[in-house]
Amino acid sequence: MIPMTLGQIAHVTGGTVAPAADPQLVVDGPAYLDSRSPVPRGLFVAIAGARVDGHEHVQDAHAVLGSRSTARPTVIVDDPAVALGRLARHVVRTVAPRITAITGSQGKTTTKDLLAGLLPTAVATEGNRNNELGVPLTCLQLRHGDTELVVEMGARGVGHLAWLADIARPDVAAVLSIGTAHIGEFGSAALLRAAKSELIQSLAATGTAVLNADDPAVITMAELTPARIFTFGRTGDVRFDNVHDDGSGGTRFDLHHDGCSVPVHLQLPGEHQVVNACAAAALALTAGVDLATIADRLDAARPVSRHRLETVVTSDDVVVIDDCYNSNPTSTAASLKVLSRAGKGRPGRIIAVLGEMQELGSLTLEAHQEIGAVARDVGVDVLVAIGAAAPAAAAFGPAAITVNDAEAASRSAGGRPQRRHRPGQGAAQGIARAGRRTARARPRRSEGSRVTHTSGPDDREVWPDVAKGVCILLVVLWHVVTKHYQQIDWQVTVAGLSISGAWGTLGGCSCHCACRCSSPSRGCSPAAAVGRPLPVLMRTRIAKFAYLYLLWLLIHTLVMSQTPHIDTARARSTWEAGGDEPRSARPTSGTCTPWRSTSRSPASPALSPRPWC
C-alpha cells in the first residue's frame, strides 16, 4: 500500500483515530484480514464475524481498521468493509494504473492467472479474492509506480459489480461467460446477465469491452456500452482452432489475430482451458503485447491458484485432481472430462468424488442428475456423492456411493483425513488411494454415515436372523389361516426361479393374486376366480418348510437391497475387485461447493469467506 498515516486513513474512510493512537503513525504495508498472518507495517482489517471477532485478535497488528477501539493503534469506522472499499478507491485513484477487470460465470480465476503471466509487472488478484473484501485488498497492494492492475470481480446479486467497479473503475473489462453458476442467488438467468453486464456498463467511451463471441448472452452486451468491442472465441477477433490433446495432459491449438497465427502448447489440463487462454490473449493484446510473445508466455504458463484442477501424484502413484472450489455444472462437467482423460491408460479405476453444487435454485436436482450422467458417459468407474450431491449418484448408476460428509467418504475408502475440509474436499485422496488397491477392500462404516452401495459382513449376519424370525411367525399364521380361508393362485419369482402355489384369502372370496379382494361383494373378477380346494401338497410338512425357506429368501433379498436404485451385487464386485476387472468390460451406460456465507447489500457488505461468482 502507498504510505499513509492513521490520520489520512481516517480522513479517507470517514472514521476517527482512537484516542490512544498516534495519528502520525505510518502504514505502508498491505491490508490483510487474517490475524494469524500479520503483515509488517500493514493494516489489519478487524471484521466482527458470526463466530470470530477480529477486534479480539489484534495483538500482532501494526495498525487496525475496525468498528471499535482496540489494544493497538486503531482507526474507528462504522463499517470496516465499507471503509476498506473507500480506502482502496483512494489508493487506486492516487496510483492511477491501467485497470483490467474480469468477470463471468466460470473461468475467471484461470483467465486472471494467465493474464498475470502475460503481464509480468501487473498487480493481480491473489487466488479468487473477488468479492467486496478481496477486490479492495488487491487494490491496496498497489504502490507508487505500478502501471497495471488485473482484478477478478464476482457478484452474488444485482449491484455488486457496479459497486466493485466504482472502487476500481476498469479501462478494459472482460465477460467470459454467462452460465448457471449461483443462479439461485440471482433468481433468474435474466438477473444474472444483468448483474454481469454492470461491469461492461461501467466502461467509459475510451475503454474496451472484451466479450466472448461464442456466448449469445455475452456478445449481446455490446449494445450496453459506448466502449470499443473486442471479441474472442472460435469466431472472435482473437480466435483459436486446431485444438487437440498433446497426450501428456496439455493441449495444443493455433491462435489467430489480425491475419497472424501462432501455435500454442498450453500446459493446463483440459481443452476447456483454451477458451480461457484465448480470453487472456485478447486482454493482453489490448495492453500492447504482441501475439508471438503471448504464445511464448502461454507455453510457459502453469497452474497458479489452488483447487483449480490442481494435480497431485501421491507416493504410491495415485493421481489426484483437485477441482473442489466453488464448482458449477459447466466447470464440473469439464473437470470430469479431464479426470477421464487422465485415467485412460493408467492401472486402477477412475473415481470421482463430488460435493454439492450450491446456489442453483430450482435447477439443483436437474443439474446434479446431469453431472451424474456426464460422469457415467465419460467413463468414470466409481462416483462418490457427498451429502446433497446424492442425485448425481442416482443418475450415475450401480457403481455409485453416497455418504454424508467428506470425512465419511475418505474413511469409506480407507483414507484418514488429518484436517477439516470443505464439502467435497479431502475425500479425493482417500478414495483415489482405494482406487489403486487390488486386494479385497470393504468400505468402512463411520458413525452417522452410511455407504449405500453395498452391505458389510455385519449386515449378512444380522439381517438373515431377523428375516428367519419373521418367517417363523408367518408360518404360524399360515397354519391358522389355511383352516378357514379359501385358495388363490400366486406366483413368486426369486433369483430368476418362478414358483407357483396357493394362498388363502379373507372373507371367503377365491380369486387370482392380481385381484384385490376385501369382501365377496366388492372384489373379484369372475375370470380370475379359481374356486379350488387347497392342494394337499401345501398342507404337508415338507411344503411348510419349503414355504419357510421361500419366505426367508424373499425377505432376505428385500432387506439386503434397501436402496432401490443401487445394484448391490454389481456395486460390491466393482468396489471390492480393486480394479481387477478390465475397464472395457464394465458397463458405462445408465468440483465446492464449499461453505455458504451470507452477504448484505453492496452499501454494507458482510464478511464473505467465499468469493462471488
Task: Explain what this protein looks like in three dimensions.
The chain has 613 residues and is of the alpha/beta class. 32% of the residues lie in helices and 17% in strands. It contains 18 helices and 23 strands. The strands form six sheets. It has a nine-stranded mixed beta sheet, with helices on both faces. A hairpin with a 5-residue loop joins strand 14 (238-245) and strand 15 (251-257). The chain is globular, with a radius of gyration of 32 Å. The protein starts with a strand and ends in a 37-residue tail after the last helix. Mean pLDDT is 75; it is low at 414-462, 484-538 and 561-611.
Question: What secondary-structure arrangement, pairings included, does this model have?
Answer:
Elements: E1 4-5, H1 6-13, E2 16-17, E3 26-27, E4 31-32, E5 43-45, E6 63-66, E7 74-76, H2 80-95, E8 98-103, H3 108-118, E9 123-124, H4 134-139, E10 148-152, H5 160-167, E11 172-175, H6 183-186, H7 189-201, E12 208-212, H8 216-219, E13 228-233, E14 238-245, E15 251-257, E16 260-266, H9 273-286, H10 291-299, E17 310-313, E18 319-322, H11 329-343, E19 351-354, H12 364-377, E20 382-386, H13 390-396, E21 400-403, H14 406-412, H15 427-435, H16 457-481, E22 486-494, E23 497-505, H17 541-560, H18 568-576
Helix pairs in contact: 3-9, 5-7, 9-10, 11-12, 12-13, 14-15, 16-17
